[in-house]
């Protein structure tokens, strides 16, 4: 089973073009709405509310916008590589070029936090982010994000 089993092969955006944080969140919400059947505005508002609490930019060019939504039945992930880095008010001040959207059912509780930890762990794998930044192909990006690390 892949480490990020909640990432579907259709939920991969290898070359997203946006001009800023708000537009990035809008694009993520639009793509997520198409794939989940949920309302785009509801997703966008949940992401905005979470960002108001503090940036989900975790540093090193990575952000993990996330939220809980009524009507969602399982954890949903979407990965995007940006054409150009944007200001995301990240903790380290660096611009962001890799976004991983994570949506969870309203009552997910600990499962939401476990999924966030898994995403963060995968994105900290040595060399993984460099490989993500180097690809422009949807299938390749999906493979990078879902393959299990090789046992030593």
From TrEMBL:
Keywords: Transferase. GO terms for cellular component: cytoplasm. One of its GO terms (molecular function) is protein-N(PI)-phosphohistidine-sugar phosphotransferase activity. One of its GO terms (biological process) is phosphoenolpyruvate-dependent sugar phosphotransferase system. It holds the Pfam family PTS_EIIA_2. InterPro entries: PTrfase/Anion_transptr, PTS_EIIA_type-2_dom, PTS_Nitro_regul, PTS_SugarTrans_NitroReg. It is found in: Cytoplasm. Transmembrane segments: none annotated. Residues 5-148 form the PTS EIIA type-2 domain. The keyword NAD does not apply. PANTHER family: NITROGEN REGULATORY PROTEIN, PTS SYSTEM FRUCTOSE-LIKE EIIA COMPONENT-RELATED. This is PTS IIA-like nitrogen regulatory protein PtsN. It comes from Microvirga alba. The lineage of its organism: Bacteria, Pseudomonadati, Pseudomonadota, Alphaproteobacteria, Hyphomicrobiales. The gene is ptsN.
């Amino acid at each position: 089973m892949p480490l990020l089993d909640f990432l579907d092969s259709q939920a991969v955006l290898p070359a997203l073009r946006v001009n800023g944080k708000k537009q990035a969140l809008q694009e993520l919400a639009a793509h997520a709405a198409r794939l989940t059947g949920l309302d785009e505005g509801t997703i966008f508002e949940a992401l905005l509310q979470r960002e108001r609490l503090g940036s989900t930019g975790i540093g090193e060019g990575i952000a993990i916008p996330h939220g809980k939504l009524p009507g969602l039945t399982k954890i949903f992930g979407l990965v995007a590589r940006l054409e150009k880095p944007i200001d995301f008010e990240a903790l380290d001040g660096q611009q962001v070029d890799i976004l991983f959207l994570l949506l969870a059912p309203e009552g997910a509780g600990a499962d939401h936090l476990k999924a966030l930890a898994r995403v963060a762990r995968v994105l900290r794998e040595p060399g993984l982010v460099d490989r993500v930044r180097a690809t422009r192909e949807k299938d390749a990006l999906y493979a990078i994000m879902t393959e299990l690390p090789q046992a030593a």
